[in-house]
Design brief:
Length: about 350
């Protein structure tokens, strides 16, 4: 089977970031990716908290239940409001570690959102017809709160299985690039380009790499790429961060550059990347979900700055608890979703 994003739904006891973070939104339901609209409004994808069901065993163990609790929230100075609501969501007990709207993008007045799944079509069908938009890219036009499917990415994975590992789809990070939307399928280990007509093209497939187990017998095992964050660079190329699959090797995550059918390594030496974003000066911000590896339940996240010359600096780690998305405004301020696998998530400004 293809990889899923293995972000453990571990309850977090305290929902206060360490100073000097400034909280600009709170009470968010599993907030993940975020982006700025053309008018400067910040949009945040909320994966929701699942709901009353149907329920079935989840891909990471335990039972997960469906509910229409996902959405997209708009944030402007002093205002926080849901602009898309009643979107599909699946989550375990307490609403932790949800899959639902994972990222959001804009094109003019249009909003796009990638909706996760973490399984195949049979898994989706187990939640009933109300859950049919899990695994889709969706779009809302203008000021309407209605959204509709652009493309069924999970069905594409089922029919094509680009990585050959068995059908498993979990649409995650996305970026609007002209007339296309670029989506990282964390389950399918590939990067997809979706036209407005719904036609899907494969931009890249990320192969397994070998890493040693961190415990005896320390043998090397195939490790899936699990692409997560996507951003479009100043050069028009797609830059993709990878979470990596088990054993979640420290330093094993990379940022790939994908352009004109070629995939190259842009930056390396990271651990469990969850999102990436460029600043106006060409700095690439790389957000790690767990800087000490997902095998460490107490690991903080981390935010790194990669300069155009390739040098990298740690921006922040303490106070980043299971961060899920990063975006940079026109002034270079960096915004991060914090506590992203909880029903009490936040958006914070991280000083750089």
């Amino acid at each position: 089977m293809g990889a899923v994003v293995a972000i453990a739904p571990t309850p977090v006891a305290v929902a206060e970031p360490a100073p000097p973070f400034e909280v600009v939104a709170s009470g968010l339901l599993n907030p993940r990716g975020l982006t700025f609209g053309p008018d400067g409004t910040l949009y945040v994808a909320e994966a929701g908290v699942g709901g009353p069901g149907p329920c079935q065993p989840g891909p990471e163990g335990g039972e997960v239940c469906f509910g229409a609790t996902g959405g997209v929230t708009a944030i402007s100075p002093g205002v926080q409001r849901r602009v898309l609501d009643n979107m599909p969501s699946i989550a375990g007990e307490g609403g932790f570690g949800a899959a639902g709207p994972h990222d959001v993008g804009t094109r003019g007045p249009q909003l796009f959102a990638s909706i996760g799944l973490g399984g195949n079509l049979a898994f989706r069908a187990g939640f009933g017809s109300a859950a049919s938009l899990l695994g889709h890219l969706v779009r809302a036009n203008g000021n309407t709160t209605r959204f509709r499917s652009v493309a069924d990415l999970a069905a594409f994975e089922e029919q094509n299985d680009p990585d050959g590992a068995g059908p498993d789809s979990n649409p995650y990070g996305m970026a609007v690039n002209g007339g296309r939307v670029i989506v990282a399928d964390a389950g399918g280990n590939d990067l997809l380009s979706v036209r407005t007509s719904g036609v899907i093209d494969v931009e890249a497939v990320f192969p397994d790499r070998l890493f040693p187990l961190p415990f005896p017998p320390f043998t090397e095992v195939p490790t899936q790429a699990v692409p997560t964050g996507v951003t479009i660079g100043p050069d028009g190329a797609a830059y993709v961060g990878q979470l990596t699959g088990f054993p979640f090797p420290v330093g094993g995550a990379r940022v790939y550059r994908v352009a004109n059918g070629q995939t190259t390594v842009y930056a390396s030496g990271f651990t469990n990347i969850i999102d990436v974003a460029f600043g106006p000066d060409g700095t690439l911000y790389v957000l790690e979900f767990a800087t000490n590896s997902l095998l460490d339940p107490d690991s903080p996240g981390a935010l790194w700055a990669v300069a155009p010359d390739g040098s990298k600096d740690l921006v922040a780690s303490e106070g980043l608890v299971a961060p899920g998305g990063v975006a940079v405004d026109a002034d270079g301020q960096v915004f991060v979703t914090n506590f992203s696998v909880t029903p009490f998530g936040q958006v914070v400004i991280v000083p750089t």
